[in-house]
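Section 4.2 – Deliverable D4.2 (structural model, holo form)

The reporting period included a commitment to supply a predicted holo structure for the target in complex with adenosine monophosphate. Inputs used:
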Amino acid sequence: MTTPPPTPDLPTLPPAGFALRSTYTELPEALYQHVSPTPVASPQVVLLNRALAAHLGLNLAALAEPQLAALFAGNALPAGCRPFAQAYAGHQYGRFTFLGDGRAIVLGEQPAADGSLMDIQLKGAGPTRYSRRGDGRAALGPMLREYLISEAMHALGIPTTRSLAVAATGEPVMRQQALPGAVLTRVAASHLRVGTFQFAAVKDQGAHLAALVDYALHRHFPHLLAEPDPAQRTLHMLREIAARQARLLALWQSVGFIHGVMNTDNMAISGETIDYGPCAFMDVYHPDTVFSSIDHGGRYAYAQQPPIAQWNLARLAEALLPLLDPNPDRAVEHATQAVHDFQPAFITAYRNTMALKLGITRQRHADIQPDADLLADLLAAMQQARADFTATFRALADWADSASPAPAWIAPWLPRWHARLAAQPGGTAAARQVMLAANPAIIPRNHLVEAALTAAEQHADFGPFFTLLLTVQRPFHATAADAHFTTPPPPPPPGACGYRTFCGT
Ligand code: AMP
Ligand code: MG
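Output (structure tokens):
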């Protein structure tokens, strides 16, 4: 493939540790578009993640403030940068659509310290071929929200795309009302989604799909390249993607994270959480909790997330069918098996994650069912009492001590749990340590997120946002002084609709 000319229209920045590659554009041209960000009126850096920049080998100190603003708003490009937008498809609420980066532009892939490539992408950087009727832009509030929640997820130890910067554009974006515009710089292990494979499968059953699988193998599963048979390699990849999703979903469930828009274009094959539109953390425990204002049927409710992940994997398996076996029946057999395997993998990952949250350090085979019952009974009691998910699990470390006061609703459950902890090596003391490391005290609570975003967006007061950001970055280390962040809001009255989130497009 011929190398496209360097982007002529935007100024180039002095070297600052960028070593961007565009390996993605070595794939068939149908899969991407070369496109540059559209410059904005008056860029200004609002947030900058210096720790993440250092991790990427960037030396941002080499850039003056206006250069940083130009970089993170898309008004100037790092030297050697050949930006592009990716094509993809997706099942949105179950319906298949052609999509693509309608408001995101990948600046390139930065080699990380371990040799892997990390996508650096500007979100809200202007229109692309895939913008459809959108303006290619983003509003400040949702970009701040993505920065905050993705960094909170990272601090919780949950695989996620990261946020490197938010730059205000100085331009309004027109939604229901005029809102301040912004660009988010997202860092991801890649932006390969289930929908990327769906796109390639529909575009060209053969060559595009095979090239994309090969690319994904090199990028995320290089250990599978030793397998000489391409069909086997593809099957192994599918299995590994399913295993990563199983682990990811167990982690989401364990902290009450509700993604809100698990369309197949929002599932990354790297196993990272991607797309922080309408997501939110559950306060009061209820398995049917939904926050997204457009998820009327509860398709993406808390308890639906694992089966939806499996549904998405089935769409990936379908897309990969032509590569899984020359015999179509056998291809379907392999695909079906790989998708089925998600469920036991999820159950195991969930069991292990939740065991630690209960302070259970050792689970013998005979413990599995009684421990599952113990957890189910706790969750049922929480639901009945409308107890806060995060605060309840955090308090378990205190309630492990039978002398410490616990609320009446949990009292009937405690003795069986106390006996379980006492019977394991290390007893209650070891269990407490495990629980304090497994149960976060601090999550980005919905009411605090809203208050911080309102102050920032409507009053240009970033104080509450910065304080909240610093706090959610230490989820397991709370003191009495953090009561503002750890105290749940009062539950909404029964029947009230409660917190609502929006896609932020
Ligand atoms: P999302 O809901 O963020 O997953 O986006 C779904 C699709 O809509 C993706 O293809 C986005 O790139 C596209 N999109 C969202 N907002 C805009 C916008 N303001 N302009 C153009 N495309 C957009
Ligand atoms: Mg998306």
